[in-house]
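tool_call: predict_structure(chain=1)
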Amino acid sequence: MTSETIRQSFLEFFKNKGHIIVSSAPLIPENDPTTLFTGSGMQPMLRYLLGEKHPLGRRIADAQKCFRAQDIDEVGDNRHTTFFEMLGNWSLGDFFKEEQIPWMFEFLTKEIGLNPRNIYVTVFRGNEKLKLPRDDESVKVWQDVFAETGIEARTHDFAERDGMRDGRIFYYDETKNWWSRSGGPEQMPVGEPGGPDSEMFWDFGPDLKLHENSEFQANPCHVNCDCGRFLEIGNNVFMEYMKTETGFSLLPQKNVDFGGGLERILAAKNNNPDVFETDVFQSLVSKLKELTPFYRGSTSIGATSIGATSIGEGGAQKIIRILADHLRASVFLIADGVRPSNKEAGYILRRLLRRILAYRIKYDIHADLFPEAVNAVKEKFGKIYPEVTRTKEILTVLEDEKQKFEEAIGRGVKEIEKYKEIEGKEAFYLYETFGLPYELVKELAPAETTRNLAKADFDKEFEKHQEISRAGAVKKFGGHGLILDTGELKAESEEKVGKAVQLHTATHLLHWALRETLGKEVRQMGSDINPERSRFDFSFNRKLTPDEIQKIENLVNEKIEADLPVNFEEMPKAEAEAVGALHFFKEKYPEKVKVYYIGTDLQNAMSKEFCGGPHVKKTSEIGKVKIIKEEAVGAGVRRIRLALAL
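tool_result:
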């Protein structure tokens, strides 16, 4: 059974249970300051779990793209990945435990064909201090569904202390069987929703010894012991509580939030705990083995800067896993609009790419891995996630980062050899000069060299650098902040507001003129506007000619002189997309959107975009505009600065 089959079977199964299938949200969450990435299927659903009505109903299912930056350091074992797919279904105040648990059991054992004797489950033990009850309701439902297959599902209260003891259902505390975005119930802030959960595990068998030398070998084996025998394949969250000032209250509705890792369910189906041996990674891993010297018959390699290094079979396997994960994740992040930078999501992408580049140098890999990865991801995922088929754009970003940093990283890898000791100051120098992130310095340098290197010391050096940079920026720009930022005015005077609004409408005209001149593949990548100028970033892979710049400017001014009306309509998002309204492609919009259009009517308007406003009433109110600069800001991304003409 392939990943495509399991994904489609899941969606069809819940469609037949009355669920509406929705598309995956982007990897960059909208209006969620708590996290850089969409790390679970529930993040895009949060407002509906809190009680807002979903426009498509109370039963929803999807396959969601996810990325978890906190797992980067864990990649290299048999189960951790940064990018993964989460299969999910939700009840938004509709059904609850009595329906969800039997459905999940039915899907796993009948649709997928997993042996029920290899399935174990966990439930919430309760917390008397917080007045959160033990989840005996779920236990009863699980016992009933197991009994239908002839299995007596015995419970056990303290498996982490006593081991399995012939149990099938295990109680754990809130560190294991409570789910919220903020951790356990005591860590949750006031206003955060959460609830007990019931996780499902696959047993690969007692003879499996993945970590013979690990700390877990001396401890009792149980489903949460991390010895490698058990793999969590899904989690039913029964989200029914809200954190309050005095404890917990019940939400207005009882919700079900299920998430199951596609790669992990596939590993269970194959009865092979290595997710990198599933068809999800098969073509990419095979290609990497062809391209790396240590898989072409050699058990050791001459690392160009570290010295001769014998990596052995386990080391080679770990390197291949890291490369496969980071390459696949990078393609998906770029496809969703992330660009390498030194902050937030862009920094995480840059960290992945620089690790790939450093590995190529350290392990003497001469092949260019980026084209192979882009093609492999396109072939495997293009039908379900069409954004990864924009291979030219994605490869341009990858190659640009490679050209910028490969030589510097190579020098940095060699520079590390010169140090007898690396602390915060030296690590920041390696980062600032050669582009080696803190984590990569720790990884590439010998352990004895970095024994006194602390992240806090590195961060202090980084903060000192940022303070110097900020002081320079304030001096350069006179302390002026943004006036118009994604539709919200922050102005000091009516005149400044007016100029910002004029430029906002002019930016819509600029977007239209760019597509008219350069082609319909041009898409908005970002913008900000103040009374002095509009900055507009767009996808395009070369420098514009002077004639093209002049033509774009002329087109904008022609439409300004035409005195066209500017209006808006509110409508469902699907209807807005159907009439051709453009939008910032990496953003996730609500189900009802506002569409601003320039022209006499929406259907025939020359410009129509998702936008919150504000805008002028007629284009003639803008006056004349001038393009003051056109430049590159990254691989495949150009920037135009537009100003009102004097």
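agent: The first strand starts at residue 20 and ends at 21. Proceeding to next step.
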